[in-house]
């Protein structure tokens, strides 16, 4: 796969240039986080996939002019890191890099590609749109400072059952909570539930004890999936959902109240999560529970089955 463009060569990155290409495309990521990113690739590499097949470079007269990375993830998804291109690169290099990276999806276990942009990455949105990405959501990243003490929540109707007691029910409930959701609704139906759950398990350090089926008055109505980050002494609310039939009873707020006390008892400093900025009821619920916004990103997605 070679593309000529004003004497610029676009090609998959050879092994001897992996380090330089990754350093370029992950330039804004701190070294510790880079290590975490590489660690996430181990399960795929152990299955024989070339995890750097989506690492593509632009060269001109043997100079590394730019790079882009389609980073595969468990759950048949991938993250497209925005192209990093030298200031003196000819126009159009970023788009050529994106096109070439997406072509590599055919050799990776990928059905959906996503990218998260900071405000500084906004010029890359035109490139994304030109290669078929669509805007998914503006994401609000929220944080709760967990109090050292928390009054126990007394709510007899609310019960948390370990998800390990019925994995099939967990998947059924999770799927049901996506119906009529206001949180990234365009994702519904793009992936099968097995891939979704596999992806959830890669977030933070998977602890089955922090995954629960939520019962309300004895009936299963939702799910609560948490992931710890021991090095930061925080938990991430990976996913919380309530089925449509049980909404409107403030169950979500009650779950958050119990979650805060659980985190307090565990000595956790913070709980973090991401929510769709257009999901106003959810944002109001989180605000009432004490969560505050600390940053935003813009999410774009593209289905790649059939490439």
UniProtKB/TrEMBL annotation:
SUPFAM superfamilies: Acyl-CoA N-acyltransferases (Nat) (SSF55729)
Occurrences of domain N-acetyltransferase (ranges): 171-307
GO molecular function: acyltransferase activity, transferring groups other than amino-acyl groups
Segments traversing the membrane: none
Record keywords, A-Z: Transferase
PROSITE patterns: GNAT
Keyword presence, GTP-binding: no
PANTHER family: L-2,4-DIAMINOBUTYRIC ACID ACETYLTRANSFERASE, N-ACETYLTRANSFERASE
Protein name, entry field: Putative acetyltransferase
Source species of the chain: Aeoliella mucimassa
């Amino acid at each position: 796969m070679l593309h000529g463009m004003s004497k610029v060569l676009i090609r998959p990155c050879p092994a001897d240039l992996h380090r330089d290409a990754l350093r370029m495309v992950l330039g804004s990521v701190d070294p510790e986080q880079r290590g975490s990113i590489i660690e996430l690739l181990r399960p795929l590499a152990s299955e024989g996939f070339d995890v750097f097949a989506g690492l593509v470079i632009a060269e001109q007269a043997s100079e590394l002019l730019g790079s882009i990375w389609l980073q595969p993830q468990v759950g048949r998804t991938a993250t497209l890191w925005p192209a990093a291109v030298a200031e003196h690169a000819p126009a159009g290099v970023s788009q050529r890099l994106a096109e070439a990276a997406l072509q590599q999806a055919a050799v990776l276990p990928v059905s959906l590609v996503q990218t998260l942009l900071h405000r500084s990455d906004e010029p890359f949105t035109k490139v994304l749109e030109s290669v078929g990405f669509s805007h998914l959501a503006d994401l609000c990243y929220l944080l709760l400072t967990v109090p050292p003490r928390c009054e126990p929540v007394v709510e007899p109707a609310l019960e948390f059952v370990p998800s390990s007691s019925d994995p099939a029910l967990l998947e059924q409930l999770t799927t049901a909570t996506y119906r009529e959701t206001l949180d990234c609704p365009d994702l519904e139906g793009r992936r099968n539930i097995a891939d979704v759950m596999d992806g959830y398990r890669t977030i933070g350090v998977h602890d089955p004890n922090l995954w629960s089926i939520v019962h309300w008055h004895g009936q299963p109505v939702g799910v609560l999936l948490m992931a710890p980050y021991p090095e930061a002494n925080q938990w991430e609310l990976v996913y919380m959902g309530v089925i449509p039939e049980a909404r409107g009873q403030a169950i979500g707020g009650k779950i958050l109240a119990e979650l805060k006390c659980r985190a307090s008892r565990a000595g956790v400093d913070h709980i973090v999560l991401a929510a769709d900025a257009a999901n106003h009821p959810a944002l109001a619920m989180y605000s009432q529970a004490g969560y505050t916004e600390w940053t935003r990103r813009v999410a774009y997605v593209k289905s790649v089955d059939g490439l």
